[in-house]
Amino acid sequence: MKRKVLFPFLMFALLAISGRAVAQEADAEGCKDHPLLSRMKNFYISSCEKNFDAVEFTVSEDGKTETVEGDKTKIAYALQEGVEPPSALQIIRNYGNAVKSLGGTGLFQNIGGTGSATFKLVKNNLEIWVQVATYNDNTVYELTIVEKGEMLQEVTADAMYEALNKDGFMALYINFDTGKADIKAESQPIIEQIAALMKSHPDLDVSIEGHTDNVGTPASNKTLSDERAKSVMSAVVKAGVASGRLTAVGWGQEKPIADNRSEDGRAKNRRVEIVKK
After folding, report:
1. Whole-prediction pTM
2. pLDDT at 274 > cutoff 80
């Protein structure tokens, strides 16, 4: 009889111990897999972040890199406790095959103590870059995905007028073709708001001032910034504002507002300012 009483108790104890042993770590709050790429088996999300950023991707065996700007998703995965870790090759091959199934290609791969790889694909006319890197004997890996694009600034005529009265200027992030002064279509709403500002305040005169980062020579940057300032001015005049109320000048790399040593800082320095006269 004693054995009949104790046996269920012992089974309950063993199940309780077993339950603790296989308890799984939950994903970090607010984090989930990227819609395009799921996780490796037995991994959970330890952290994640999503923002507009610039990421440097390795693209060749000789260490050549390419910096890509766009909507970045970065997810850190950690292995569940008590599970044998996969090899770096397994992790990288898993994502390589997933990207290739979506029509993408591999640009770089390194299988060593710390494995890493870079992939690229195009989906719905959107260029997508993927980077995988393994750490801590492959018990942790990071997945970084950048959906390439340019930062779009939403700004209104009222916000510009408020900034001009408060600070005397406002920095605008107008997208141009690379190395040129042609304004991209997605920045046309900013031009329209500048025109609306000028029409709403007929006594307001402004200077349109172009700025660059420090990539390239000072002379070429000054020329480019001047051409871009004039391009913005021409677009505003075309929108119905008298040319006599506007002037244009290019400062090149002379007046940075952020650290040119980082891509984020360089992106902030590439700007057009509207300055109250």
Report:
1. 0.57
2. yes
